[in-house]
Amino acid sequence: MTTPALSLKNLNKSFGPAKIINDVSLDIAPGERHAIIGPNGAGKSTLFNLISGLYTPTSGTVALHGRTISGMPPHEINKLGLSRSFQVSNIFTNMTVRENVRCGVLHSMGQGYAFWKNIGSNKAVQQKTWEVLEHCALTDKANVPAALLPYADQRALEIAITIAGGADVILLDEPTAGMSHSETDRAVDLIRRATEGKTLVIVEHDMGVIFDLADRISVLVYGEIIASAPPSEIRGDPAVREAYLGDEELPEVMA
Ligand SMILES: Nc1ncnc2c1ncn2[C@@H]1O[C@H](COP(=O)(O)OP(=O)(O)OP(=O)(O)O)[C@@H](O)[C@H]1O
């Protein structure tokens, strides 16, 4: 069997007496697009924080391509090929779009955020930066200060920076939050193109996005995975329907 790109084994996280993640085990194959859904407060962000190293598990392990990463700091995990975007935009607003992406590229080349070095002329860096901008349909805005971008483009830039690091496992946290329908369609298109051949783990509230994009969906309820299956199976799963009906209106795509 192929080694999973990401493997969670009996993962638990408690804050004081509150058990937030409860014995989660999940294997995600290389190249898979995996969505994590669940009602508000189910523990989706906490799970992302455990995977990306912001939180240390109370018990259990996270492995990236077979190597245990739980307990490592986020930057070490990033160096091993896992990159994560945040719900809140993480871009440098006083830099241009190109400079933002270049930072991500430099980071991936082990240069860190080496602003003081004359690397603007480094061909490989320039080329990679341009490739990422093209991938994310941002070339025409390359010289625009990030602060002046419309909201949807700022989120696209966030995704560009996340993939610029060259990671092959990408975690996206609610990438279409706050977007209009047309912006969401554009973002889904971008995510599909930008993560081609990579492993994607996405947390998203927009069920249309999830059912459109994901190869497999895991449903997290009160910190437990109650189902993990392709979208067609999730749609008809009685436990999933009940979990959603118990908490909020059944999303249209599942109705
Ligand atoms: N650092 C923390 N300390 C204590 N409790 C926390 C901490 N982080 C998260 N929690 C609690 O864990 C639970 C799950 O939160 P989390 O943000 O992971 O849920 P979520 O599924 O991402 O929710 P949403 O869909 O609303 O973003 C919540 O009850 C939250 O209050």
From TrEMBL:
UniProt cross-references to InterPro entries, sorted A to Z: AAA+_ATPase (IPR003593), ABC_AA/LPS_Transport (IPR051120), ABC_transporter-like_ATP-bd (IPR003439), BCA_ABC_TP_C (IPR032823), P-loop_NTPase (IPR027417)
Entry keywords, A to Z: ATP-binding, Nucleotide-binding, Transport
An example Gene Ontology molecular-function term: ATP hydrolysis activity
Matching CDD domains: ABC_Mj1267_LivG_branched
Source organism per UniProt: Maritimibacter harenae
ABC transporter domain span: 6-247
GO cellular component labels: plasma membrane
Entry protein name: ATP-binding cassette domain-containing protein
SUPFAM superfamilies in UniProt: P-loop containing nucleoside triphosphate hydrolases
